[in-house]
Amino acid sequence: MYRSKESGLKMLDLCSGIAGISMAADWAGIDTAAFCEIEEFNQKVLRKNYPNIPIFPDLYKLMKQSLIDGGVDVDSIGVISAGYPCQGESLVGKRRGAEDERWLWPEVFRLIKELRPTWFVGENVAGHVTMGLDTVLSDLEEENYSTRTFVFPAVSVGAPHQRYRTFIVGHSNDKSKLQTDPRVVPFRSKWETWENTTGINRGTLSGTYWEENKPAICGMDDGTATRLDEDRLRFLGNAVVPQQIYPIFEAIAKIEGLL
Predict the structure, then answer these.
(1) d(C-alpha 42, C-alpha 145), whole Å
(2) Which PROSITE patterns does this one have (predicted)?
């Protein structure tokens, strides 16, 4: 089970998958208050690793009152994260974007408007940059959030595969610490580093680490799965690499005084 010490900053993890985003947040000292995940297999993984965190299955029905009714302290939620479905933006899909019925950004945005978190962290495929991203950024900026977007591969943190992903960071100007907090300088420096094409934290995890910790069900990343479990393979394929998104949560935690 992955849990950090209790902190004052909580996160609502939407479209949680198997909690790759929450794992990275946890490493930075940001606790997850609740998950929202519809897939039964993913829910089983979440219950096993996070037995004390409530899981809400239906994003369309999730709202502030249902969180309260489920025992969640909504006032403590300072971060909303969402790895919203990417099929509509994926370069290997039909790229219907907002016309795709799996396009869940409007529901994520509805909860952002209702809960008004200080931070939003979003994750999607690289193709999101050319389809759907403008809508996300415009929506956030209309609600007075400053935004930054980063696209970088998992290989930038030492993983043995490319796996490019788009990460969106939004910060509420209504609750801004960025203008007065001296830690804004290193945070902006991180932003500039992430935007650099050389990638981030190169070599943080060695090839030995990935070799020793490769999942048994998949074999190597570009090889053939010898013990194929279709559910596990499918959901691992959609999962966020925690090391890839961790620097974002590390920067947030430093600004919020958690690190």
Answers:
(1) 30
(2) SAM_MT_C5
One-letter amino acid of 215: P
Calpha distance 9→30 (Å, rounded): 6
Please give the C-alpha separations between residue 220 and each of 47, 168, 231, 242, in angstroms, as whole numbers: 27, 29, 17, 18
Q: For residue range 96-154, what is the model confidence (pLDDT) as tens digits?
A: 544 555 579 999 999 999 999 999 999 998 777 777 889 999 999 999 999 999 887 64
pLDDT in tens, 151-190: 876 445 554 455 678 899 999 998 765 555 544 444 455 5
Neighbours of 147 (CB within 10 A): 17
Contact 184, 255 (CB under 8 A): yes
pTM confidence score: 0.75
Closest CA to 164 of 130, 134, 137, 138: 130
Active site residue ranges: 86
How do 10-14 and 77-82 pair as beta strands? parallel
